[in-house]
Amino acid sequence: MRRIAGNRAARRVASTLGTLFGVAVFVFVMLRAIPGNQITAGLGTEAAALTPAQKQALEQYYGLDQPLVTQFFAWLGNMFTGNFGYSARSQQSVLDLTLHALPVTFELAVFSIVLALLIGVPLGMLSASRANAPRDAFGQVVSLAGLSIPAFLLATTLLSIFAASFGFNPNGQGFATLIENPLLNLQQMFLPALVLGFGIAAPILRTTRTAVLEVRSHDFVRTARAKGVPERRLQVRHVLGNALVPIVTMTGLQFGYLLGGAVVVEQVFSVPGIGRQVLLGIQQKEYAVVQSTVLVIALAFVVVNLLTDALYRIIDPRVRAS
Q1: Are 301 and 260 in contact (CB under 8 A)?
Q2: For position 256, which CATH number holds?
Q3: How far apart are CA 85 and CA 305, in angstroms?
Q4: What pLDDT sits at residue 3?
Q5: What gap in Å lies between CA 68 and CA 286, rounded to an integer?
Q6: Is residue 305 part of a domain?
Q7: At what angle do helices 182-216 and 151-166 cross, to 10 degrees?
Q8: What are phi and psi of 93, to 5 degrees?
Q9: Number of other residues whose CB lies within 10 A of the CB of residue 140
Q10: Phi, psi of 86 (to 5 degrees)
Q11: Of 48, 127, 185, 251, whose CA is between 20 and 30 Å from 196?
């Protein structure tokens, strides 16, 4: 057993390292494929007026005069020593920027997942309780709306309605952390989390409905009902309890997505999260900011997947025994 567990751990470590290396290569190559660099982004049209000597000096300063392979492994080596690079735009190290932005995105992701579960799981169970009935149709409509309405459209619509009709726009006051001002922070997180949570609730709703319908068809459910088990206890403990693995898996995937995929909502609501940091880095062609931040997001996604895998090994003995 120890040998099997050791082999499984070794495979996971190798898979994680391979994934991170692949992400690093992909981001590095894609950034160089985009027209322009730090020099043209910083100087704009004035870059055309640079003399060859000035251009060469700036390329040496940014390391652009080195071969691409040298640039890549130099950046990767610096990452291992904790040197994530430097942002000329904000006059801060990328590590400091990430340490400030990552908790913000993590908080937004947690609130969004909580709202998504509060919407998706009950509606999924309601839909599965009577398939093809009006309640099932209602759940399918909500799911379709969550999947089809773009996040930027829903975000701008809600922001406009709440600001114009109710004078509610806490995001215009400057971002406050949960420690600095808990009440203002929760107000600023409400609309972004609602937008993201509504979109994420759709796949969670569909996964819940499918999983619950499958479990309800098993013999032990009919046996428990025949023995007189109360309906609420039957649905929560026996049906939902045995349908948790796909729900947890989907929730983990969506949580990992939120760590880097909330960029549009963060931009609309001026939330200084990790996705917005990547967007600003791309706009300014700050290679170090984008490369290092994306690699951190990829690492966080891998960690979330590992934790999700560990969680459903805890809740399902069949998976734990495999």
Answers
A1: yes
A2: 1.10.3720.10
A3: 27
A4: 58
A5: 16
A6: yes
A7: 130
A8: -75, 150
A9: 16
A10: -135, 140
A11: 127
Q: Are residues 52 and 177 in the same domain?
A: no
| pLDDT tens-digit map of 148-161 | 999 889 999 999 99
In angstroms, rounded to a whole number, what is the distance separating the alpha carbons of residues 156 and 295? 29
Which domain covers residue 47, as residue numbers? 8-91
Instruction: For the chain, give the number of residues.
Output: 322
Alpha helices per DSSP H over 181-273: 182-216, 219-226, 231-233, 241-242, 244-261, 263-268
Q: CA torsion sign, 322 to 305 to 145 to 114?
A: positive
Residue 120: both structure tokens together = 């998706």
Q: What is the pLDDT of residue 322?
A: 55
| Over residues 12-40, mean pLDDT | 81
* Residue 181 maps to a domain: yes
Express each pLDDT in 62-120 by its tens digit: 777 788 888 888 888 888 888 888 887 778 888 888 889 999 999 999 999 999 999 99
